[in-house]
Amino acid sequence: MFSRLGYTFRETYASFRRNVTLTVAAIITAAVSLLIFGLTLLIQRGFDNLLQRWEGGVEMIVFVNAGTQPDGLQFISDALQEQVNSGTVQSFEYCDVDCSLADADVVLAGDPTTRELLDETNIPTLFKVVPSESTDVTFLRGLKEAYQTLPSVHSVTLAEDQLDLISKLQGFVSTYTTGLWIALMAASGLLIWNTIRTAMFARRREIEVMKLVGATDWFIRIPFMLEGLIQGVLGAFAAIGAMLFINWRWTEGVKDFPDSSGMTALVVVDGYQWWVALIILAFGALVGMIGSGIAASRFLDV
Q1: Residue 231: per-residue pLDDT
Q2: Which of 66, 86, 152, 203 is the most exposed place for a label (fewest CB within 10 A)?
Q3: Range list for CATH 3.30.70.3040 in the chain
Q4: To 5 degrees, how large is the angle CA 14–CA 20–CA 25?
Q5: How far apart are CA 240 and CA 186, in angstroms?
Q6: How confident is the model over 206-234, as a mean pLDDT?
Q7: In the predicted model, what is the mean pLDDT of residues 274-296?
């Protein structure tokens, strides 16, 4: 068993040395494609953070001053209930201090300095409002103006002011980055395939001799498949390192953005990046295995 493992690794290393240029090209292409794939997932997560407040059909948020007493909250709730009774608002939900702090963890993920300044005593709470389907934007804008004058109301925000731009950006980025990483992933698979094919042709006489002395097809294939797997995994590790560095630099850079820009939510600091790293590693290994496996099977009869 150990002799077979030693043979497998020796042959894999020898194949690497024979095809250095093709191997490096395959690893770089795999790394770039996997990097774009990982960044696409992180960007999607960032947009999801931006849109978190607007899930469930929420189209208006009424921010309440910190420390507002129960009677002040009841006054705002009664005003919203009147809209529910009139049919212009379908439902509303109050987000208390704990809920608002959890919301701030996401919205201010890229601005930890500001987040640290918020606590139970000074964070604004909020009402999330879901309008009826028949309620138009003009009416919501009028409702916004009216609610901004209510006692204890800090501000009112409409989804229309943010969602259109966010959705357009999300669609644009997702479409083009997804197409790019798919194309590059296919290119890296083809490069690995071509590397293994070249290696097998370079050793065709050895393969013929091995078959004559009784070596099985799998015994011959394994070193070549291992070579493709290693290429994919090396590309994945390079992509993971680059992705984590870019994510770190982006997170540091967002801290300097104005609070009003809303961009502080476009960061991923909740551990999701490590799940993406595992996905990248799995994809790299899969691409390497598929490319080398097809080549090793297709060109075994040399």
Answers
A1: 83
A2: 86
A3: 59-158
A4: 135
A5: 19
A6: 71
A7: 84
Mean pLDDT computed over 108-118: 73
User: pTM of whole model > 0.85?
Assistant: no
- Position of tokens 């409409």? 158
Provide mean pLDDT across the span 277-291. 87
Comparison of pLDDT for 254 and 236, the residue scoring more: 236
CATH of domain 59-158: 3.30.70.3040
- Residue where the block lists tokens 């409002």: 129
